[in-house]
Amino acid sequence: MKKILTVLGLAAFSFGYSQGGTFVLNNYSQYDYEGYIIANNIAGGCYPYITSANPELVKVPANSHMGNGNELRYDNYRDQFNSSPYPMASWNINTSSTSSVTRPWNHPSLMQGGVFSLNTRWATIKFAMFYPGTHINAPDQFGTSVTIAANSCYNAPDYYSTPSGSNSAEIFTITNGTIVYTYAQLY
């Protein structure tokens, strides 16, 4: 009986930890976001490490957030392709510091319950901000990396403020039952 309870507990933990949680990027700022979205194994070893690949840099226009329905929202690696206004056609997967492969969004290893889905969690954004519709950098050094507080695999804070304090970025998680929601917000 103890073995059955242990197996069920581990299975519940695995599904609760799985990347299957939702990632939401709200860009409340007046600038366009351009950057990477990164997920990794924060429970140990840091690998697999998964980043946006096609497009390499995700672009989210200024004033795109949940309030107006224009947020970037990825429920998981696969389903985002048909549901997000910012679809990711492929993901770059690093299984070690020397092994990397690019997989299309519909590859079986990326499906809900697949090996990469079960062993990664949305964790980091690395970005630069631009004046809308241009590649002219936003003022005041508005660009950096932020990562969730529990992520020891990526050296970045979970909150950033520009030198003048006029813009900021944060990333955090909210858990509802066994689902982890990761929010990145730009102001």
Task: Describe the overall structure.
The protein is mostly beta strands. The protein has one domain (2-186). 13% of the residues lie in helices and 42% in strands. It is globular and about 40 Å long. Residues 1-18 have low confidence and may be disordered.
Write the layout of secondary structure elements.
Layout: H1 2-17, E1 23-27, E2 32-41, E3 46-54, E4 58-60, E5 72-74, H2 80-83, E6 90-96, E7 99-104, H3 115-118, E8 121-130, E9 143-147, E10 159-161, E11 168-176, E12 179-186
Parallel strand pairs: 1-12
Antiparallel strand pairs: 1-5, 2-3, 2-4, 2-8, 3-6, 6-7, 8-9, 10-11, 11-12
Keywords: Signal
Signal peptide: 1-20
Helix content: 10-25%
Number of strands: 12
Major β-sheet profile? 7 strands, antiparallel
Give the averaged pLDDT, no decimals. 89
Principal-axes geometry comes out as: globular
β-strand percent reads 35-45%
Unreliable residue stretches? 1-18
List the domain count as a whole number. 1
